[in-house]
Amino acid sequence: MRAISSMATRQVLGELTAAAADAGLPAVDVESVGGVDAARRVRDGEQLDLVFLADGALDALAGEGHVHASTVTPLVVSSVAAAVPAPGGKPATNTAAPAFADAGAMRDAIRAATRIGYSTGPSGTALVRMIEDWGLADEVDDRLVQARPGIPVAKLLADGEVDLGFQQLSELVGQDGVEILGTLPPDCAIVTVFSGAVAAAATDPAAAQSVLDHLASRDAASIIERHSFEVPAR
User: Fold this and answer.
1) DSSP reduced 3-state for 81
2) In this structure, is residue 141 part of a structural domain?
3) How many other C-beta atoms can be found within 10 angstroms of the C-beta atom of residue 28?
């Protein structure tokens, strides 16, 4: 069985699908690429059984008939975190504290940064929109560095290309050379729901649905949380 996902969920999906296979369900080969590229390939009619993307992207694909709308299932909730380069290259660890006291402190940090890294996909779009809403676009536009498709913001930080980076927490945890400051404060939090759906091109839709159901079951909760995601409300 073939599936495609955005990079943000590659590790958690790897473990979730392995657990599903251990439970006797069909094995799934998940290819993780940039979210924009994943959606394009689905639209191009590539033979896929399951598609895992952010809610907005999946809703668009469902509206166009590329995935079965009735199968769209929320799987994980991802919060965006802020991070800086870590001296010594130690792997990044999660922290329970917010990165900044409030939105005002986050604005100050963005204005003070020399180079600001952000990702492709919904979290990056939301960050840029927030910067525009704060009236900072003209001030920091030439300091914004969007990660290339398939390249995590963590790599930009570790390589010294940026001194402040924003990406899903799950993408930062465990990466070398990164210090996680925390998730964004409640008054400017960026949260993305990633869902799965059965592709219109699926060769065995019923089997694909059975895998999807397992990924959304209670058995998956511990895996999801271990990868620094949250479990969606069911």
Assistant:
1) strand
2) yes
3) 23
Please give the Cα distance from 65 to 59 (Å, whole number).
Answer: 10
| Amino acid making up residue 152 | P
- The predicted-structure confidence for 66-98, as pLDDT tens digits, reads as follows 999 999 999 999 999 999 999 776 677 776 689
Q: If you average pLDDT over residues 49-65, what whole number do you get?
A: 96
- Establish if 233 belongs to a structural domain: no
| Alpha carbon distance 154, 111 (integer Å) | 20
Percent of the chain residues topping a pLDDT of 90: 82
CA–CA separation, 189 and 183 (whole Å): 8
Eight-class DSSP state of 217: S
CA distance 69 to 65: 8
The parent domain of residue 50 ranges over: 2-76+193-226
Q: What is the DSSP letter of 121?
A: S
Pairing of strands 73-85, 164-168: antiparallel
Tell the residue number behind the tokens 């030439």, with chain if given.
142
Strand pairing category for 144-146 and 116-118: parallel
Identity at 116, one-letter amino acid code: I
pTM: 0.82
Q: Are strands 144-146 and 164-168 parallel, antiparallel or unpaired?
A: unpaired
* Same structural domain, 83 and 144: yes
**Dihedral angle computed from the Cα positions of residues 75, 56, 5 and 167, in that order, rounded to the nearest 10 degrees:** -90
Q: Which residues are 3's β-sheet partners?
A: 30, 50
